[in-house]
What does this fold into?
Amino acid sequence: MSRKPEENDNKERIAKVMARAGLCSRREAETWVAVGRVAVNGVKLTTPVFTVSPNDKIVVDGKPLPTRERTRLFLYHKPKGLVTTNRDERGRPTIFDSMPKHIPRVVSVGRLDLNSEGLLLLTNDGGLARVLELPDTGWLRRYRVRANGRVTQEALDRLAKGITVEGIEYGPIKATLDRTQGSNVWISLGLREGKNREVRNVMRALDLYVNRLIRVSYGPFQLGEIPPGAVEEVNTRALRDQLGSKLERLAGADFTAPMREREGEAAPPRTKLVRENRDRPRFRPRGKPEREKRKPEKPDRPKFQPRGRPDRPKSRRRERRR
It folds into this structure.
């Protein structure tokens, strides 16, 4: 006997629904609910422990919850000096302050601190962001580190077994000493957990003080030649291939829904890379550049000069022969 579908089978937590609509992350959604910014069927919520069905009418800040759009992923080259958050209590600039206007509402996959730079994944699907942040996903994150101090490759090899720093256990880290530059060393790191300030804490345990930290890859996605502050969108087909069916199912990603740009903003032409300096030509014309026209030659100056000595008068030549 088959079980009849119950009403609760299609219900989900309000924070999960808001995150998948691309409005905010789950953590932010719980905060919005707690302060009374969310109402369901005309009743204002006071706790995030609430489930909704597809037929419920959800209102956030007096506006209906946006319809769910296609799951999208962006590669962002975070510059140094920006905070990975929507709002900063101390008034510091955030990554979203300089985001291109046509980019939809996105959340970050993990974080990079104020003084870190490099690849940061952005997505409009809070469910996908949550799945990609989990250590169980197993995606390798690679970093290039410049640190002040001295270290040997043997000391770095011991990190492959994990390390405990101030009571916090960090998983295996693959580290390679690239080169020494003055009083600094350059190290390549690969890790899968990505705990808060993990790289800096581990380096400090080796008497190394990080003065530059660059994330160069996150799973299959590479920083490549993306300029600082620029955003590149991952093609939908490539995104599905890289996620695989398992991660796609766990994230609840939707690759069939329509895409939605920011309200009031026209969608830009479909280009692979979105740059801020659009006035600068991206390609140079083929062929040699036109040469400048030569200045007209002066009429009093002979065009050619005869070789050898100038001819002498014949009379002198005859006198000498005689």
